[in-house]
Amino acid sequence: MYQRIKYDFAQELLKIKGSGLYKEERTILSDQKPNIRVSFPAGSAPRDVLNFCANNYLGLANHPKILEAARRALDEYGFGLASVRFICGTQDLHIKLEEKIAAFFQMEDAILYSSCFDANGGLFESLLGAEDAIVTDSLNHASIIDGIRLCKAKRFIYDHADMASLEKALHKAREGMDIWDGPGLAKEPVPARNIMIITDGVFSMDGDIADIHRINELGNTYDTLVVVDDSHGTGVLGATGRGSVEHAGMLGQVDIITSTLGKAMGGATGGFTTGRREIIEILRQKSRPYLFSNTVPPVIVAAGIAAFDLLAQGGELRERLWENTSYFRGAMKQLGFDIIDGIHPIVPVLFRKFENDAQLAQQMARELYEEGIYVVGFVFPVVPKGQSRIRVQISAAHTREQLEQAVRAFEKIGRKLGVI
Question: What are phi and psi of 198, to 5 degrees?
Fold first, then answer.
């Protein structure tokens, strides 16, 4: 029975490999930090490389206080709870972290998930129905796209970061769909009952930051909910690390923030939604990933508490991150690399000026690895055609010497391949 579909799967895998999109996993033989030990390709001898592709923005993945909190929780609360939250999966640790998250973002309540992917997956269908509308940025994360697919609300996609396009979509949703978009001449356009605007705070491939101030203004004008997925902003942006919403001066003014504990906040796993009290209460009652997934393990919850405590103690790590980011962006731009302007530690090195952009991105990543620099090339369909890139990610844990080594390697391989 399996033989027929096995052939189809084999053909699909051949197509993926033939298109150059096959993803090979690198085996890391150390803890996550700037200098790691890697075996790649599979079975090859391990080698030491500098890691420039982790979301470990603050260097908390192996921070002593994070490790200490996790060990203590393992001893006091055990390994797991073998239950969902509403049966027997809620410990005082979970409540403490949710309260800490809500206070940190100046919100009324918060709810934990296994990941931000689950937080987004359980958001839309819990809050919106067929009479409602979702207005979403065209470059929003896959978790937002998949979450919206589970919801019966009408969908309006606006051009990336284009506020005029957003307002046009809001007008269409609020006033009723244009006859050519759906109902036709036989039916009257039907205005949406409730509208939700959803945007990434920081877009993961370009490192650009959403105009949350203007988005919120439009939300107020058209009487909508405003939601920000701030997975790449939490702990990184804003004067106190409260993310892209703080960066925009809008703390406490958006309705919902979803984010993760799996990037700047320790890098393990776990996600959350924080927002208005009634919204969070509805999610506890209706959000399927929350209701039907095991509770977040206590070691992760305790580490998350420690991460938020570290943020509250001062901005030294963020300041170091900004210094590192500013140095690397400036050095790469001075060499002539095509860098998207910005301030975020996501630094895309693009090959859009070259017809063989996909080949160049992958070849350069391979040769940089041979130079001891671990980065990954991203090509279509992960990014649009003609927009292939190497996404460099800077950490507060990188030393100036490590950054200089990376810049030298980029210069060497960039000149060799004719990129600069």
Answer: -125, 130
CB 140 within 8 A of CB 226: no
Catalytic status, residue 263: yes
231 is catalytic: no
How would you class 417 by CB atoms within 10 Å of its CB: exposed for 0-12, middle for 13-18, buried for 19 or more? middle
According to the model, what pLDDT value does residue 139 have? 94
Q: Which two tokens stand for residue 408?
A: 């030298």
Catalytic residue chosen out of the listed positions 114, 126, 143, 204? 204
| Residues forming beta bridges with residue 339, ordered by sequence position | 349
Q: What are phi and psi of 379, to 5 degrees?
A: -130, 175
Spatial separation of the C-alpha atoms in residues 176 and 170, rounded to whole Å:
10
Task: Select from 200, 256, 250 the least CA-distant residue to 227.
Answer: 256
Cα(397)–Cα(65) distance, rounded to whole angstroms?
A: 15
Catalytic residue among 263, 293, 344, 398: 263
* Choice among 232, 247, 344, 398 that is catalytic: 232
- List domains and CATH numbers for the chain: 20-51+315-416 (3.90.1150.10), 64-312 (3.40.640.10)
Q: Which helix (H) or strand (E) holds 199?
A: strand 195-200
User: What pLDDT digit, counting tens, does each position of 225-273 carry?
Assistant: 999 999 999 999 999 999 999 999 999 999 999 999 999 999 999 999 9
Based on C-alpha coordinates, what's the Rg of the chain? 23
The alpha-helical segments, DSSP class H, found in 19-51 are none
Would you call 63 a catalytic residue per the annotation? no
